[in-house]
Each structure stands twice: as structure tokens, then as C-alpha cells.
Amino acid sequence: MSELLTVAQMREAEALAMREKRASGRELMERAGAGVVEAICGHWPDLVPGAPHAVVLCGPGNNGGDGFVVARLLAQRGWQVEVFFMGDAERLSADARAMHDEWSALGPVKHIDDTGTGERPDLLVDAVFGIGLSRPIPAEVPAAVAAVRSRRGGGALKLVAVDCPSGFDVDRGQYLAGPVTSAEDLGEWMTPDLCVTFHRPKPGHMLSEGAGAVLKVVDIGIGTPFSTDPAALVATPKAPDALRLISPDTQGTGGWYNHVTGLRAARHKYERGHVLVLAGGVGQGGAARMAARAALRVGAGLVSIGVPQAAIAEHAAQLNAIMLRVVIEGHDLRHMLEDERLRCIVLGPGLGMRRAAMLVPAALSVRRACVLDADALTAFADHPARLFEMLHDRAILTPHDGEFRRLFPDITQAMPETGRIEAARAAAARAGCTVLLKGAATVIARPDGCASIHSALRERAVPWLGTAGAGDVLAGLIAGLLATSEPEALDVLGAAELGTWLHVEAARTFGPGLIAEDLPEMLPQLFRRMGV
Ligand SMILES: NC(=O)C1=CN([C@@H]2O[C@H](COP(=O)(O)OP(=O)(O)OC[C@H]3O[C@@H](n4cnc5c(N)ncnc54)[C@H](OP(=O)(O)O)[C@@H]3O)[C@@H](O)[C@H]2O)[C@H](O)CC1
Ligand SMILES: [K+]
What we know:
Elements: H1 7-19, H2 25-43, E1 53-58, H3 62-76, E2 80-85, H4 94-104, E3 109-111, E4 123-127, H5 140-152, E5 158-162, E6 168-169, E7 174-175, H6 183-190, E8 194-198, H7 203-207, E9 214-218, H8 230-235, E10 243-245, H9 253-261, E11 274-278, H10 286-298, E12 302-307, H11 312-316, E13 323-326, H12 330-336, E14 342-347, H13 353-363, E15 369-372, H14 375-378, H15 384-390, E16 395-397, H16 401-407, H17 409-413, H18 415-418, H19 420-431, E17 434-437, E18 441-445, E19 451-455, H20 470-483, H21 492-510, H22 518-521, H23 523-530
Parallel strand pairs: 1-2, 1-4, 2-3, 4-5, 5-8, 8-9, 10-19, 11-12, 11-14, 12-13, 14-15, 15-16, 16-17
Antiparallel strand pairs: 6-7, 17-18, 18-19
Ligand LZDS7PUF binds next to α2 and α3.
């Protein structure tokens, strides 16, 4: 399965596994600790032969329990290990106490305030707080990490977080700033080199690199192991309130593409769908042309650009397979949409406010797949409710943060509290259509709460995708994928997930130096690699 679990869902999964006697709490803790040690030794193989020195910070809960397991297993592998404990052994859970006692048979449990003295450490394991964090962390924790770091002298101290960095809210993907004045300060001392979590990633792991530069998910035997296989994504039901991760391995994604588009069965271009991209006035046509080219490349059978009469020459000089239609007023568009072979409409890229205000109502007057981006969103910033009352469930909004803020000011204001995922869900519920909130961690949400995250972080980071026109191309990719579906088989979320992934994968394939026009041109080689 490729779904993410919130803290509450993780606790349910653990409790169910224990209720069904698939594992005891102690076995889960032992497996968790063993998984952390495997990940450490796998991540730093050259550390192991030299009897490295590890400092393990254990907290008052079961995260601390995991830490005691890690300490024992590292010591049994010949590491020098020091354990510092913040808590009261008498108040530990039975499982954590048992692990505390097993470690105690090998070495002392020191107080976390004493971390300033000792040998030069190679690695620090943060097992102070995990998913049980309920409030900002006490000052002793950052102080302890700083003290251990100061013992290091030169060279970087390797930081490992058990389940998540202490102080990090794994549902929202942000630090709970506490004694340290800002998340930046927290992030500075605790952006781990390696974070090892269990059973499933949590949303925060995929929303922010603050959770760790490298993320490992360890199976501890409480259910179907986490998988980034594309077939797992296809198999994961789009249930209300489900949270899906769209960061599959490229290998085997051809099946995913064919599942979303059904193009293997398409016989002629009309079966592959016709996309209409509405363009702005003279000299404003580039964005629409990029969206149109992306739609055609990704799989649509036909693509037309709807332009004002005066802009015909500008477009005609630059287009071949993409057709041109004159669309002046809303009634021109309504007339065109009587042709049901026009399966998807794109409004926004370079459209201009005036044309957007005029054409969006016409486009939404029929329940046709529709991608609204850029000007089609900003044109309604002063009266979002007017847009929401026209929207339907075959539309998708693709705002970046600024456009999102203009359409959903109150939801944006609440975002530090609710987190990005709940914000996107609230927006989708209000708009009555799918909302794709763009970012390095793009969140896509449906009105029923089903949501997906595409995490272009860590090894999937593509900073060079921040280039003019990239958003226009994304709108075209999603539109092209939507057009390949028969209206009654439309899966807006599924098309948006694949479009988002292709957008980043094309950028990863091209690499630095990318400009938006390059993106559609990367698709053929990407499709070959995917096995489309
Ligand atoms: N069988 C299992 O459940 C497994 C759990 N795993 C590991 O366990 C943690 C979750 O353990 P939990 O005990 O629920 O929570 P934590 O260890 O993260 O810490 C919570 C304890 O710390 C106290 N707390 C919380 N916030 C603060 C704070 N800011 N300052 C001080 N103390 C704090 C809290 O006390 P309360 O006062 O809030 O009640 C708890 O005592 C999970 O992350 C895994 O690492 C295993 O890995 C798998 C099996
Ligand atoms: K931790």
C-alpha cells in the first residue's frame, strides 16, 4: 500500500496488531530498534568497522524505549554506546522499562543533563520524543544535542531520529517551536541526516525535509508493508479521508499510466480525447501554447487553442499539430462545448483577467473536465464564492500558495494550525471540486477528503522546476490525461496524481538548465523508461 498514516491511524494500526496478537508491544519495540540499527549501519557502512561512538538520548515514552533497544543492539555490534535518559524509569511503560533494564545490564543510564562530558561521539540517536509529542519540547533536549555536538569538536555529528525528530509534528510537517525561539533554530539542531520511521511514513515526513535528509521506512510487522511500487498506488483505494503518497519508483509506472489513460485500447484520436486550451490576447499566447503542447504530448488525441481573432496570426505561426479556434465571447465557448468530443477545457495560463472573468462561467456551464489555473483563479480573488458556486466535481483548481491565499484567505490563515493537507481538504470541500495545492510537497484533495501528496523532496527534489511556465505545463499535462478518459470514467484525482508525478519526473530527467518548454519534450524518453 502506498498510503500515509497520521499519528492517530498509526496508533490504531499498532493497537489492532497487538489486539489480534500479531505482535506484542515489546516485539514491536524490538523490531523498531532493530530497524533503526539496520538503517544506521546501511547508511554509514564505513562507520561500522572502527567501533564508533554513539550517544543515545532516550525520552520518557516508548520512543525512549526504542532508544534503549538501539543502544543495546549497537553495543552488541561492538559500538561504544552512551545512554542519556530524560524521564523517570519508574514511570516508563512496561515495554520501555523492560528495554531500559536490558540496556542497564550492559551499561549505565546517565541523566540527560550530563551529556556534556564523555568521549568524542560519531553519532547521536534522538529517541527522546516520537509520535507521542503533545506539546513543545523542554529546553533540555536542544541543550543536550548542543552539548553532544560540542564534544564532537571538528567534523559533523551524524544525527539519527527515531520515528521523527523530537519536536517535529509528524501530522503537519512542522516543528512545534518551544523553548527554542523558532522552527529554524529547532531545524538547525535537529534536521537529522537519517530519520527511521515505522510501518508507514506519516504526512509530515513527506511534507518537509525537516523530518530528515534521508527517510527510511521500517516494516515492524503490523500489516501490509509500505510500498512505493506503482502497482501499490493503483491498488490503494481512493477512500474518503485516505492519504496517498505519489512518489512511486519510476520502474513499472507504465502500468500506472495505462491504468489512468486506458490509451492501450484507444484506436483513434477522438478516443484519446480533445482538449481545448483558452488563450489570452495578442502577445499573451505563450502560456496557452505550452499547456497545449503538454496536453498533446501526454496523450490527448487532439488539442485546440481558443484565441481572440486578433491573435490568430501569432499562434498560427507557431503551431502545427495543435489547432486554432476563434473564441471571442462566452457564447462562442458555450457553442463549442456542444461538441461533447471536447473532453477537457484549460483556462488560466496567460488568459488575462478580463477573458477569464468572461470565459470561466461559460466553461463551467457544462459539467466537463476543466482545469482552472493562474488567471482563472485570480480573476475571482475578490469574490471567490462566485467561482465556488459555478464549480462542479469534474473541475480541478491548481493554485500555487499565492493563488490559494487569494481564494481561501481564512483557510490559509489557519494553515499553521491545520497543516497543508487539512487546508487543501477544506478548500476542496468548500469549492466542491478537486484542489491541487502546488509546492515541493504538492497536496491534491477531493471534496470527500481523499487526498494525495507528491513529495518532490530529498532525492526527488527538483529546484530547477521553479521556472516560468512550469505551472502552465502542469495544467496541460493534467488536462491531457483527463481528456483520455470517457466522461463517465473520469478520475480527476488519478489524472492529477499522474500529471504531478510526470511533471516532476520530466524535470528530474532533464536536470538543471530546464525551461518550461523542455518539459513536454522529455515525455517520450520518460514513457520509454516507464514502459508505457
Ligand atoms: N507499541 C507501540 O506503541 C510502539 C511505539 N513505538 C515508539 O513509540 C513512540 C510513541 O511512544 P509514546 O510513548 O506514545 O510517545 P513518545 O515516546 O513520543 O513520548 C511521549 C511521552 O513524552 C511525554 N511528552 C510528550 N510531549 C512532551 C513534552 N513536550 N515535554 C515533556 N514530555 C512530553 C508524554 O507525556 P504526557 O505528559 O504528554 O502524557 C509521554 O510520556 C513512537 O514514536 C515509536 O518510537 C515503536 O516504535 C513501535 C511500537
Ligand atoms: K525521536
